[in-house]
Design brief:
2 domains, Rossmann fold, Dihydrodipicolinate Reductase, domain 2, 14 strands, 9-stranded mixed sheet, homotetramer, about 375 residues
């Protein structure tokens, strides 16, 4: 049991009624007791913002109708928020983050970074000119076994990496989305989601995870993206070939029209000395094969493993932890960085927390997929 | 998003440094934001109690050295605790619970009910004479797919139940426990754990789950229990045959000496019309076979399922939820019952929350296993 | 490629049209080209015997109406059969085997040994007074990974064995069998199948496999057997607790009324140093855990394994071999023993081929299950 | 039991000592008793040819030193071979097949068709001008569940096919092959294997399976192929994007350097109404999801399935059949076609047996992969 630390005062932009990811962020912030949600601009619709604030128990005077008023007032309050979670549709990320960053309020932002490259550049400027932290919730990087995988590869257990297979199939958009499905609605609207559909929503996760685990530098990609459902304005399936600067090659497949797949993020990495395989839906086990030996099942908090950070492991092996705990790990490490920052130390660079660079790389990934596909799957540089 | 409700003021007995289940209870209480931990008697060692209280951010005047002082003082405070979580070794459950129950403070108690039958009877009296709620954390009953299984069986989807196979293998006690392993130490000490070792620690979970899901009434059992590790004073493996009043038969195996098993609770139920299979380590999927049809994979929050209570499902299908969310479900439903009680309504009997009866049945299970085995596996009534 | 050897002339008793296991024996005998089927008494119904012989291409004068005529004439032929496969319902095994054994013709007999203990004693006498070999097709003992498991345990890899969990669930008799189902008909008829239903048909396999792999000596059992389907004259489900002389304990479950299970023979063995798990439906992989290390997946012909006899492995790892290859392994080793015998050497005792002793133990198992259950699950000695 | 038919007289070219696939063909030919191996030119080394013939029990005068003498003499014999299995390294396929085809002897040839396109054209001519059958052993098409998958897709169960994901990872060439490994030696030698390494050896299987199951017409591909092991002259990993004329898109990955994969052929197909998934290493189960319903596990010979041809199913569900049975299915259907041909009927076109067209498409696949990769993954037409 580590020493008690006062919870960080947290605000939230977006995440009102019917939102999916806002509720996830709130649970993630609560699990380890490191945050206290005290303010919010929870919806762009004032009525909904008010109702949502009330439902969350926020004080009326800290329930805002828009993020700008919130940033301005909270920055002035003696006990104003120290950090803000931005969980809006993508097209709002930049404008919202900027308001808090310029007032020194730390930002925990959902991915992808923004809805377009122009915004991404503005976001970069806002982050770089701010003294506050910027953390991007590429939550899948925080599963203990993913950390273990990264550690093993960095230690050379797999030898030089040759092949990276990553995929992220879902099926929820197999048919034309019902008009009243709020999630489907904005996620398939280029104005709110961005030019990438499946590439932005889940392809960025897959791409980020592959880079995170392998430590490789992406060089270029070629892509063939599709919108299989008639009338859909963004891609719902993407086939991507990847080249890394170190010589490894990869394949990425993301799809929202693959019936039988709920949230099938899966990573496989093969090197000259061994291979690993991991699937998000059963995140407590990872297969590892040292070439010439039987495959071993490494488990979260299980026997004979290291490389799993102790602070990210809440229960003994066999007690399955999942998506929410993985997400909470981001919030837990963010809390540590925020407190260090308040003490004048920059810890984010020492941690594995994703931030601006990962966000920019994700935006380049989406853009490259779209452009490559438009040019009949030409290779596009990611550098 | 439901209406906001003020968090319930929660105390904790046990759960200090190095404890396993105390930390689980605290996370479970935090996940949905329905509780606020404000007081504790976290250890029977005063120094440790103080240090643990501090580490959890409790006010010094609400960090108690013993549960009795805590019960007395909290009951008098205007803003005293409304509920208490009891997470001590088993032999303390009764005495602690009694102090709170008799002062009208709701009790959320870890299983098994007590360390012996005499205590169990006293506990029963304390519960029955109290106006406060008594909830026993048989947490595995709260996995959404377990609720679905129960619902399917109650609806007759499986026909008359014939065979119940339940097992709970672990391997952490395969060898003699190191002296400094606090968990192993009390869990294998009859004075603290009770006469049952594996039967009490995990067999009660397996037995409870089988009864919960099938809705059957246990009639009798015969058991062959063993202590394979030399010098161990309680059982570390148990083989049990079960008879149910409705005519079904079952087998229960629990073990703490089965290498390769981390926390392998597994339930299989077969009836005249179909069967189901579920494993705790992969709790987001359940196999269901209607006889004569292909096996179907039912998933948490997945397609084509019902019987999963909406309030227990925090994320869409494919976002694995696990042990902590299952545990949190107990706390969530308990909060609802506590608030109803405060409004003068008794809701517990309408819910599926385990309580005194389940605890007493668990004690009878342990006792019957020990007595049956001592009589060369004679049948012992559970009624 | 080993040296060519002339195929052994094989006869068959039983196995005519509609038979299941006869066809399996014929494929098993063909896979390695070590046998030539040249004679048969394929049915107890003469018309069917003739039609079946014709369908198999047997010469008309070697297609017999009954096994006795066949034994008499084949024994006199210069090129008469050297071995006979007996694949009739159980009640015919003894009488048929005796005719061949007493004429020096080697017998490969399906399990269980006979339909009752009196017959078993006569069979024992026939085998013991014959110079011919008697091989019982407990085919599951011949999967390469089962041999590997046996080898590992014999080598002490698992330490002293403590717990043996074996089960064999099926679902094909979940409902009352249709009258025209020949398989169901004789297998649920005590006059033809014997007193054991599921215990005889599949329980003997499970029991045999547990003994084979562990090398333990069964001491006693207690059983609770049921006939869940109304009107069924033999058991269709059995729960059995086992004690071994060396101190290990076990559980055996066999069922033919467990919907969702096709042929789910599964063995788990746990010792002081490790555990293994194997399932017949995915026979090319076995889990092995050395206590304190990650579980390893040992595969048929895979990396880092030994203990798999080379002659039983026909293809490289990853090319799944199954039930028929396992069965063929019995025939392959039997061919070796028959040829050695023809050269005056007794090899069977050096091999792991099951024979009379395994058959007698299986009969004791069935008998003990029935008697134990009749005495309310009393312990019955197996010695 | 169908009517008996005299075994077909079979010869073999290649398949001597140390060969892998020759032994597989022989077992496949034996399993159903439809062939009798009577002649062979088993090695290009006369001594080895003689020794191998002896080991297989061939008559000395039907053990040939070269395939041409064999073709000439067998064609003249009254009881000469009716069919020949060609199981040599790829560069010999054409010359050998031609000698038999032009003499009216049916050819069962291992894949890929030849080692280069020029040979493929000659092979095509030889096949087209012959009255004999030409069957290519794309054995994976004969697994019963693969037939079921094809049937389901043809019936529209999956709706219009959108996405095809096929992969075939192995790991046996992860390191530089030992010089004395005969299999590795010729399979990585362009002169014997052809320009494609992994693409030819296993990529052709994956490509063929995808086309077979979906019934789609391949339009074009782009590929990025690699030789990761230093000094290797052929590809050992290939990433391929596929386009089909009907609008579907696909990805194909084959690799021989992916540690932890033994023989991991895996096919996933997704359409507007559903999806299926199948893996070769566990070939007795296939996942099928009708969109909006739970995933169903279809099993070989299991409940609720159709589309599995009865003659390809030798045992009830739960009795795993594998690689050898799948291979035997080719031989079984080939026997039927050969006999029909002998009766003047052409049945091959009515069956699903692969032949020349599949072989030519495979050669175009290899060639396109190599050319596309040489042009930086340009799209290459497959028409």
């Amino acid at each position: 049991m580590s020493e008690f630390q006062r919870p960080i005062r947290l605000g939230m932009v977006g995440g009102g009624n019917d939102a999916f990811i806002g509720a996830v962020h709130r649970i993630a912030a609560r699990i380890d007791g490191q945050y206290e949600l005290v303010a919010g601009a929870l919806s762009s619709t004032p009525d909904k913002a008010q109702a949502s604030g009330k439902a969350l128990g926020l004080a009326p005077d800290r329930t805002y109708d828009d993020f700008k008023s919130m940033a301005i007032r909270e920055a002035r309050l003696k006990d104003g928020i120290e950090a803000v979670a931005i969980v809006t549709p993508n097209h709002v990320h930049m404008a919202a983050a900027r308001e808090f960053l310029k007032r020194g309020i730390h930002v925990i932002c959902d991915k992808p970074l923004t809805s377009n490259l122009a915004d991404a550049r503005k976001m970069a400027q806002a982050v770089e000119t701010s003294d506050a932290l910027f953390i991007l919730t590429h939550n899948y990087t925080s599963y203990p076994l993913i950390r273990q995988a990264r550690d093993m590869i960095a230690s050379g257990d797999l030898g030089d990496i040759r092949v990276v297979q990553v995929e992220y199939p879902q099926d929820w958009l197999t048919q034309a989305q019902p008009k009243d499905n709020k999630q489907a609605s904005w996620r398939t609207d280029p104005a709110r989601s961005g030019a990438g559909g499946s590439t932005g929503d889940i392809g960025t996760h897959a791409f980020n995870l592959a880079c995170f685990v392998t430590g490789l530098t992406p060089d270029s990609l070629c892509a063939d993206i599709q919108s299989f459902v008639q009338g859909r304005q963004v891609d719902d399936n993407a086939h991507v070939m990847l080249r890394f600067q170190e010589g490894a090659r990869g394949m990425l497949w993301c799809s929202q029209v693959a019936p039988g797949n709920e949230n099938g993020l899966r990573l496989r990495v093969y090197g000259a000395k061994g291979g690993i395989e991991w699937e998000q839906e059963t995140p407590n086990v990872m297969r590892h094969t040292a070439f010439g030996e039987p495959t071993r099942l490494l488990t979260r908090a299980g026997a004979g493993t290291d490389g799993q950070p102790e602070h990210l492991v809440r229960t003994p092996g066999g007690h399955p932890e999942g998506y929410l705990e993985g997400f909470a790990n981001i919030y837990l490490e963010a809390a540590e960085c925020i407190r260090a920052k308040q003490d004048g130390r920059d810890m984010q660079s020492e941690t594995l927390l994703p931030g601006l660079n990962e966000g920019l790389m994700g935006m380049r990934f989406i853009d490259a997929c779209v452009r490559s596909s438009a040019r009949n799957a030409a290779w596009i540089s990611l550098q």
